Amino acid sequence: MKLKNIFISGLGLLALTACNDYLDVDAPSKSFPSNIYSSTKDVSMALNGVYAEILASNTFGQAYTYSLVLNSDVDFVSNSSASAQTNTPKRYDQTSASSTANSVWNATYTAIETTNEFIYYLSNSPIYNKEDDNWTELQQYMGEAKAIRAMLYNELICYWGDVPFTMEPTSVTQNFVPAITSRDVIARKILEDLIEIAPNMKSVSSIPEGVERISQEACWALIARIGLQAGGYSLRHAEGDATSYGYMGMPSDSERNWFLTTARDYAKKVIDSKTHSLSLPYQSVFLNECNMKVVNDDDVIFEIPFAIEASGSIGYRQGPKFEANGGSTNFQWGESGGNQQLEWFYRYSFKQGDMRRDAVVGWWYYTYDGIPKICKGYSYYNNKWSKLFNDTRAYSRISANNTGINYPYLRYADVLLMYAEADVKLTKAVNTDAVQALQSVRNRAYIGSTVAAPAVAATDSASFMDEILQERKWEFAGENMRWKDLVRNNQLSEVLYYTFLRYYATAYEVGGMSNTTLNDMIVAHDGIDYFGGSGETYTIEEIDAAIPGDLAYGQTAGKAKGSLLPQRLDYCWIENPKDNEYFANHELPTLYIFNRYSNNHPANNMTKVVNFFKLMKSNHPTSKVAGYTAITDPENPNTELRNLTLKRDDSYINWFYDADGYPRNQVLYSFYGFIRGDETDKTKVLLIRNGVGEDITGKIDQVPTDLPVVRYILPIPREAITRSEGVYKNYYGY
Questions:
Q1: Which of 357-361, 450-454, 559-563, 696-700 has the lowest mean pLDDT?
Q2: Pseudo-torsion of CA 677, 680, 683, 686, nearest 10°?
Q3: 67 lies in a domain?
C-alpha cells in the first residue's frame, strides 16, 4: 500500500508544539499539559506531526535531497558566476548570510524541537508503562521519533560539524541557547539512544505501512550509517583559530574503533535479519517509487513518504526537464525542473554491461509540447526518478513540484557496502563476508545484462576500499552520498581537483589548445584514455558494440582511442518503444541515438544514413534496431534526420569561447570555493587555500602534494549567532 496523507491529523498538534524559529525568544509549547498523551491515538497523531517535519521543503522535502547535494564527480550543477556569492553551497561558496544555510538550520532545529517534545511528553505520559495494553506500540512510536531525531542531528553534524545539542525540549529547560557540542559527542549520544530503543521496535513485516515508517531494521541501518560517518574524517578547526579553513581529522582511536564496530555490527544485524534483499533489478526500485508502489522486502529499508501535490520534489528535480508554457504542458505530467544532474564524465566511469549507467544517465529533455531535445551542456539528466515515469496518471498538466514520490533514505545496498567498508577499516583485511556484501550489490547491477558482473578483484585492504567507494559511486547517484563518502575517507580534495581538470582539459582540447601533459595526467589517474594518447586505435568490432556512453561511440575504425568523444552525435525521432530499459516513459516520443560508424548502422555517408532511417520506418525484422519506429522531426516535418556535428561553430561539447578558445565560465567556476579561474585573467587557475587563491597555472599538470581542504562545512547562520548574543561563533574562515 502507499501511505496517503498520514500526517494531516498531526499537523494541528504540530502547529501548537514546535517553535517557529530556533532560538526564538519564547516557545508556545511551554504551556503544554503534562498529560497531553492520554491515549495511544493521541500519540499516533502526534507522531504524524514528527514525520511531517521531515517532509518540509527545508529538510528532506528539498534541502537535503537537492539544495545541499554538493558538486562532486557524480552530482553536478554548473555555475557561470566569476564572483563570490553568499548562497551557492553546491560550489562550496557561501557566507554566514546564506539564506539556504539559515532556512535549513532553522527548519532542522524546529524539527528537533518537535521530536524532543514528543519524546519527553511520551516518556512522562501515564500510559507509557509496561502494564499498558499498548506498550509494544508505544515503544515502536518512541523508536520512530528517536530515529527521526538522530537523522536530523546526523545531517547537522555532516554539514555544520560541531553544533548546538540538546535532547530535551525548550518548553521544559527554557534553555534557548544550548551549547555547541563536539560532533563526536553528538554522534555517540544519538547512537546510544538508538541502540537502547532498537530492541523494542518492530520488524518491517509487522508494520502495516511497511518501509514508509521506521522499522527495527531501519533503526539498525541508521545506526550503521551514523557510526560509519562518525568513524571517518571530517573537517575540523583548531581551538581559537577562526580564520583557517581547518583540517581533516578523525575522532580518537578508541572512539573511532567504537563507531566503526557499531557500524559493522548493526549493518550485520540487518543482513542477518534477511528481511531485505536485492532481488529486483536496479531500475525497478526507483520506478516503483515513481509509480507509488511500496515494496517492503527488497532494497528499500525506509523511504520518506511524501504525498502527491502536498510534499516532496523527487522526480521533479531529477529526470528530464519538461518545459512549461504558461504554467502548463501539453501532457499529463506537468512541468519538471530536471535541475539535479550528473557530472558529464560520470557515465564513462561505468564498466561495460552495468545496467545502472543507462538507467540513470539521461540524454534528452522535452519542450512543453512533448518534443524531445538533445541535452547539450556540462551535465546529464539524472533519470533515477522522474514524474514522467509515472503510469498512474497521478498528475495534471499544471503539476509542478510536490510530486509525492518517496525518497529512499535507507537502502539494503547501502547496508551491504557499509558493512564491507567498516569491516575492512577495522580488520585491515579483505574478508569473505565483506567481499560477498560488495559482490551482491554488483551482481544486482548486472541483472538483465548480456555481460556477467565482474568479480571483486581486490587482494589488499587499500584496493578493496577503492572498489567499495567506486561501487558506491555507481550505486547512489542523486542520493546525496558521494561527497559524504569522500569526506569520511579524506578524498574530497583530490576528487574535486581531478573533476575540475577533466572539464578544464576537455574545454582546451575542443577549443584547439590541447595540453598533452595535462591530458596524460588525467588519463593516468582515471584509467580512461579520453584524449587519444595511448597510441591504440579502435577496431570495427569495438565500434559495432558501442552505444552512447561507451568510449568507442561516435568514432571510426582506425581512430585513436579516446580522442575526445563523441566526435559526432547522430539521432532521429522514434515512436515510444514502451521499453523501460530504453526510456521509462511509455507515451512521449523519444530520440534514438545511433552510432553512424558501425557496420550494423549506417556508414559514413548520408545515403546510408537516410536508408537506415527508412529501415527504421519500415521496422524491418532484420534490422538491429527492430522494434523502434522512426518518425519525422516534429519541429521540421520535411527533415527526416537531424545531425549534430562536433565542430567549433556547432559543437556538442561547446565548453570554450569561439573568440579565443578559452574555457567558458561554467568550466572555471563550478567549484568556486575550492578551485577556479581568475576573475580578471582567464589564463589563470587558482587553488583556494584558507580563502586565498594560489596560482597553479604553470603547474596545473602537477598534483600538489598538499592539496588544501575543501570548505564543505556550512557557516552557522548570522541570525543564529545574533540570537545567541555571541555565544555561537563561526570558524573555517567565515
A1: 559-563
A2: -40
A3: no
